[in-house]
Amino acid sequence: MRPAVHDRYGPPEVLRIEEVDRPVPAAGEILVRVRAATVNRNDCAWRSAKPAFQRAFSGWRRPKWRILGDEYAGTVEAVEPDVTRFAVGDEVFGVRTYLDAGFGGHAEYL
To answer: Do 5 and 15 contact (CB within 8 A), yes or no?
Structure first.
């Protein structure tokens, strides 16, 4: 898949499209094909590390999470056996945070 990634803090120009492995859902997880995602103030703060105290959460020297995007909408592509609430083909939307294993909405799959 080809997400927007960043390996250093800075302006929007630090973002680039890079080929990375498609995520594999673990036990109790689903795989979502992202159809739409927002770019909001939250993403800008995580990308730029401004205000400076942001680095206490996002990494002092470089970003902990290369793929940003906390709000997304998409379609369920795969469901692990112990997931009963969702089925392949369901349309979903949600919000991911650094507490949820690190964003991911600015990718083709999460």
So the answer is: yes
Q: What is the pLDDT of residues 17-41, one digit of tens each?
A: 999 999 999 899 999 999 999 998 8
pTM for the whole structure: 0.84
| Spatial separation of the C-alpha atoms in residues 22 and 19, rounded to whole Å | 9
* Residues, the chain: 110
